[in-house]
Amino acid sequence: MKQLKIANIPGDGIGKEVVAAATDILKTVSEVHGGLKFEFTEFQWDCRYYLEHGAMMPEDGMERLSQFDGIFLGAVGDPNLVPDHVSLWGLLIKIRREFEQSINLRPAKVIKGIRSPLLNPKDFDIMVVRENSEGEYSSIGGSMYRGDDEIAIQNAVFSRKATERAMRFAFELAKKRNGHVTSATKSNGIIYSMPFWDRVFEDVAKDYPDIQADSQHIDALAAFFVTQPDRFDVIVASNLFGDILTDLGAAIMGSIGIAPAANINVNGKYPSMFEPVHGSAPDIAGKGVANPIGQIWTAKMMLDHFGEEELGSVLLNTIESVTNDGFLTRDIGGRHTTQDVTDEIIARLKK
Amino acid sequence: MKQLKIANIPGDGIGKEVVAAATDILKTVSEVHGGLKFEFTEFQWDCRYYLEHGAMMPEDGMERLSQFDGIFLGAVGDPNLVPDHVSLWGLLIKIRREFEQSINLRPAKVIKGIRSPLLNPKDFDIMVVRENSEGEYSSIGGSMYRGDDEIAIQNAVFSRKATERAMRFAFELAKKRNGHVTSATKSNGIIYSMPFWDRVFEDVAKDYPDIQADSQHIDALAAFFVTQPDRFDVIVASNLFGDILTDLGAAIMGSIGIAPAANINVNGKYPSMFEPVHGSAPDIAGKGVANPIGQIWTAKMMLDHFGEEELGSVLLNTIESVTNDGFLTRDIGGRHTTQDVTDEIIARLKK
Ligand SMILES: CC(C)[C@H](C(=O)O)[C@@H](O)C(=O)O
Ligand SMILES: CC(C)[C@H](C(=O)O)[C@@H](O)C(=O)O
């Protein structure tokens, strides 16, 4: 019997609803499967916690999380309560960094029953490997002077180690998929980091002669997501470029509400973290209308991560059978509630 | 009689073909109009020039350009001949910077007869005001060590002056349009420059109480370009974010081949420069199939800039009447050549 200890951090806004929904689903999966058991522990670390304690988590928060096999996160941030960069750097980005979750993995693919906003989405199936530890999201920089003379500087920091790690991850993934890696660059406009990025990409590509490797500038790549998304397989991107591309990926799928993600610790020292692409959407929180698919598909990525790819496939197929039969929340044109969709997936899993 | 001296820099690849086409159109406009005359001088500064001379332009290049009222540029760069960051920083970005063309103005709107890749594009009409002098495109940074320990650092530099200038430009523009400015930010992930950007935006917005002002994170904004492009009017964005958004804007219009741009010197000290969004597309150069609409619409922006808004409107209406009647190059699903489309626009302008 495989036992997995999961730390649930529902977070803010709709995070609470969708984590509850996806946790019920994971419980069902393990009931049905038999050989797998989850033990969930919930941590109420959110913006309200910050208002009370002046921090997004207790001082021993990271130590407590390190005892778990995985972290299942909803969404963090509610700018009405706490400025985003405070809540996010105090929880989401802190965990990504300190637990060396150096890869953020995000699929974008056509899901049956969910209408893409594209006229002709064809059958795209992309996996974005986002470098998740450095790049444009650095805490190096600052500002000086106030008023008319103020200057702010943000450093984007790229190391060979992290760049190469993301790229190798992408090439390894492409071996198991369709054998094609595209690098998101901007070496024509950004003169230090991106030519470096290209150089590392060329080096790594040499080790994978059987994989088709090419580069696209981020501006053109974003445009191709709209005009020809089916030309991509695996994309490797910096932290910021990956962020933008994966929201775009969610958009062409039909809704940010369905897009999943995994923050992967590749060295096995710390737990990985699973969180959907969408935010906390405080405007629709507590109304029971949030789309749970992003969080449920994220649960599928967690199953994959723990070596349960078969169960992961069963779950994704069940999601698709439910969406294909029209069980949709209103963000994707339906009239069903979070609970309806969740119940239907549970019912079908039990069959 | 208004006389305008224009420096034509066709540049690389299809730049040569589309600049020739759009120049013919401008000549026709001035013939028909009577009160306006263009004098064109052509400069062959391109990647071949670089291979011969070791620079993208002669030493007195900028001085010569400064004698003109405007610069009409095709496209720069051909990575088969010269690395992009060399050709671009030696010409395109050099001119943008040294001539203090601090605003890059790029429209994205539905054009009749050109099929958007969106299922339901509605009637979007966006103007992106891109900060064009600093930000993520800075020449500050570098790298150290080679091999496994290499680190590359790119500084994004934001000054109050340039940030505020772009924002005021956006608000002034919104007054003449639909009274709505959206700021492209990423203050949840990028902690120095973007919170600063937000602060300046809030300050500037206070001076325009009648303009609706809001902010969107760049990832969400990119997604909205696909799902709800009609919710925007004017968007103000940093150099990199503006770059990405305007390629996306071109994509949702139906082709990068039709998107125009103006690099505006707002203090009147130096000429402004007009160049389409698309690149030099060396793969289709010389075949007569390049879409000239981007360059011709760019000519319209030049007319607007010189106070000839009425002529500008006539030109855009003529473009739309031609596309609406199916005179399309193959990148937008037609079978016409560069020359066909150009001739048809000229014929209709003469009527
Ligand atoms: C060629 C490149 C440097 C340039 C930019 O990013 O500014 C281009 O993409 C553009 O948008 O004009
Ligand atoms: C909330 C924000 C800091 C975060 C990011 O940009 O990484 C989010 O957009 C994401 O993609 O997970």
Automatic annotation (TrEMBL), chains A, B:
Keyword vocabulary terms for this entry: Manganese, Metal-binding, NAD, Oxidoreductase
Family designation: Belongs to the isocitrate and isopropylmalate dehydrogenases family.
Enzyme class: oxidoreductase
Lineage top rank: taxon: Bacteria
Cofactors required: Mg(2+); Mn(2+)
Domain Isopropylmalate dehydrogenase-like, first and last residues per copy: 5-345
InterPro entries in the cross-refs: ICDH/IPMDH, IsoCit/isopropylmalate_DH_CS, IsoPropMal-DH-like_dom, TTC_DH
Catalytic activity: (R)-malate + NAD(+) = pyruvate + CO2 + NADH
Organism (species): Domibacillus iocasae
EC number: 1.1.1.83
Cited SMART domains: Iso_dh
Molecular function via GO: D-malate dehydrogenase (decarboxylating) (NAD+) activity; magnesium ion binding; NAD binding
PANTHER family: D-MALATE DEHYDROGENASE [DECARBOXYLATING]
Keyword DNA damage: no
Protein name: D-malate dehydrogenase (decarboxylating)
Entry-linked Pfam families: Iso_dh (PF00180)
